[in-house]
Every structure is written in structure tokens, then in C-alpha cells.
Amino acid sequence: MTLRIPELPFGLEPFGPAAGWSYQDGTLSARAGARQDRFVPPGGAALDPDSDAPRLLGAAPEGDFQLIARVRVGFAAAFDAGVIYLHVGDREWAKICLELSPDRPTICTVVTRGHSDDVNSFVVDGDSHWLRLSRTGNAFACHASADGEKWTFVRVFALGSPEQAAAASVGFLVQSPTGDGCEASFDRIAFRPTGLADLRDGS
User: Fold this and answer.
1) Which of its termini does the chain have fewer beta carbons within 10 Å around, N or C?
2) Is residue 36 a part of any domain in this protein?
3) Interval 8-55: pLDDT, tens
4) What domain of life does the UniProt record list for this protein's source (predicted)?
5) What is the pLDDT of residues 103-113, one digit of tens each?
6) What pLDDT score does 46 carry?
7) CA distances in angstroms from 19 to 33, 96, 158, 163, 183, listed in the order given
8) Cα 90-158-143 angle, rounded to 5 deg
9) Does the residue 31 lie in any domain?
């Protein structure tokens, strides 16, 4: 079932385990179940078909964009997270996360190309933070912010072919890899049909 919210110019479809996605008064929320994650260990085998987490995704319009949200996470166990998620192929996706990693709230990113990498960027205070995913040309960038005004550069990367990058789906994910479940909410959601002129100037 397609979920349409006024902040986004595209509909959102659920993927993965059921999470009870809901939208009310500007806030999107969901709950991941126990041991739910979307991650392929770098030294492991191919993606375990039972390894999945609830996602809510839509096809981004053509061209450059920024997807922004403030995420709040009900941290209970290591690696619980709320995520802005990017999908370009069955074995190619990326996440920018507010994650308990493993005992402090941390901005983390994961880029999966068959196998996943895993990067912790910096610790933050509290259970909420702003996340931003952008596309400029064929490149994607991740930023984080305490206030939604001044942004800290986290990562820039390419993912998939130019054709795949142009047809990317974006949205939200909730995970609880080691715990019994995790609730997360996303508010102040915004979509801007422009890229970033400078990834590192704080804008």
C-alpha cells in the first residue's frame, strides 16, 4: 500500500518485515522487530535472505536532490538505529544512521556493494539528530546536523552505474540488529530538488 505524505513529491512503499509504518501530524514512525537488520558482513558470505529490516521507499525524481529528516530513536540495544536509506540495486544500497554504536549515539554510514562496509563518524548527544542524503550528478553525499541549519559532512560516494544512480529509490529504515526491537520516528521531513554546490561548507 502506497503511503503519501505532503513533504515528499513521491509515494512510499513498504519493503521487508512489517513495521506498522504510520504518519501523523508531520511525523513518520515505525518499529523494527527483534534482530532485524540490513547488512552483509564484509568478511561473510552473500546476503542472508533472512537478514532484513523494515524500509519505506519511493523513487526519487530525476536530477539532483536532498532528502532531510530529523530522526529520533528509542535506543534499547547495541546498533538500534533510525536511518535514511538509499537503494539502487538488489546488492547495492546505502544508509546514514543515528545508531547506538555500541553504547553511545553515533552518526554511522554503511555502503553495500555486494558486501557492506561500516563507518562510525562521530558521537552525538541525545536520541535525536538531523540526517541528510543528497544526490549531485552521479554522486551521493551524507550529512548530519544538530539543528538542521549547520551540516557536518560525513561521506560522499558513487553507487551503481550512472543509470542505476539516476533511478535510485530513497526513504527510511529502522533496525534492531542485536535487540528485541526498536522504535524510530522521522519529522521535519523535507525534499529539495537541488544538489549541493559545496559538500564541506556547512550549508
Assistant:
1) N
2) yes
3) 999 999 999 999 999 999 999 999 999 999 999 888 665 565 579 999
4) Bacteria
5) 999 999 999 99
6) 58
7) 7, 19, 29, 31, 9
8) 105
9) yes
